[in-house]
Amino acid sequence: MSRTSTDTAARLKGSAVGGCLAVAMLACASVAWAADADQADIDLQTMSWASACFTCHGAAEEVEGSRIGVLAGMPADEFVTKMKNMAASTTPGALMPQLARGYDETQLVRLGQWFEKLGEAQ
Q1: At 23, is the secondary structure helix, strand, or coil?
Q2: How many CB atoms sit inside 10 A of residue 82's CB?
Q3: Which domains does the chain have, with CATH numbers?
Q4: Which of 2, 17, 21, 110 suits 95 as a labelling partner, its CA being 20 to 30 A distant?
């Protein structure tokens, strides 16, 4: 092998190793970033769902003149039970049964936990 081909082979080998290391580092960074992003998305998604409730239920205090209860601080299991009852139309209400049917079990649990923690933060 001539000196030129040896130099070229060494550069290519170095480039390949460097490229593999760069790809591996990017992959690890992407996985770590994705984990952080997933956690942020979960919190933001739940907050987004919960914000729809604030118009009637208030964010942390009762809405003046309303008989509708505040959700902040409600135990998560109580929230989930009430929402399931409304979804099954066992709790009277014109709007809430329709809204309650729009959430699955996982979403209800996440919302319940969010409202419970919201009460603890006050």
Answers
A1: helix
A2: 19
A3: 52-120 (1.10.760.10)
A4: 110
